Every structure is written in structure tokens, then in C-alpha cells.
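EI: anyone free to look at a 162-residue chain?
SC: sure, send it
EI:
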Amino acid sequence: MHPVRVSIPSFRSENNSIERGYTVFKIDVLMNGRQHTLEKRYSEFHALHKMLKKSIKPPEIPSKHVRNWVPKVLEQRRQGLELYLQTVIMENEVLPKIFLDFLNIRHFPSVPKTESCGKLSHQPVLLFLRDPYLLPSARDAFSNVVIEGVIHGVFYPDLQPR
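SC: here you go
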């Protein structure tokens, strides 16, 4: 089962003086226990569909043309778009970047756990000026020149010896 779940619980009509009325669909996205909501117009779904066709075989998308804007027809479109998103998720083990971008999901390269062990890159989080486990103890009469040289080179590369 995929860690991404989507639903389209509702839609609303928008009317303004600049352009013809249109419908906005509310999308709930749940990923790794975190939920966020976004809104998309049908034209954005259609653009996504065209882009997805370049990399995968997406499911059928509800018809672009709706003859009447009655709630029953819009409800059918809502259900169709919800099924469309859910089918893309179910049919693809790795979700395309364009799909994750559409849902405003940050995407991370997915590396199976068995492969990741040898490819870890480490970044220092905390820096010690001296390693207490490598330095000779105060009781040691003779210091370890090799260890001190390595520590000096790592932690004080620009410092010249006296």
C-alpha cells in the first residue's frame, strides 16, 4: 500500500467579473500521517493528465466538456477526478515527480533499504576539537605522536607546528 492517500471531498463554484465561472475541487492529501489540503481546477487536472501521458499510462480522466453545471453532473466529475488520482497512486509503485508536484508533496529519491546501506553520505552534526577516546590519557607518560598528528591535521589544518 502506498504512503499517499487522496480524496476529493467537495467542490465549489467560483464566479468573478474577469472570467467565466469555474469549479474548484478541494483535494485532501494524507502522507506519512500528515494531511494538507489544496484546491485545483479541472484545467489543472487536464494539464496533469497530458504531462503524465509522457511518462506513464494514466487512467482515463473525466470528460473535459460538461454540458450543464448542475450539482449532480459536478458531483460525477468530482468522483471521477478522485478515482483518477487514486488509480494513479495504486497503479504506480514510484509516483512521477509531476504527480507529486501537483499534490504539493515534497519528493525524496526512493532508495530501497537494502541499497541504501552502502550509499549513505554523512554530514557532521557536532564537532569536537579533541576526541577524548583517541587522546592519550593523562596517566600516559609517552604521548601517541601518530594520533596527535592526525588530530592536529584534521582539526587544525592551518596551524603550523612550533
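EI: The longest strand covers residues 4-14.
SC: 👍
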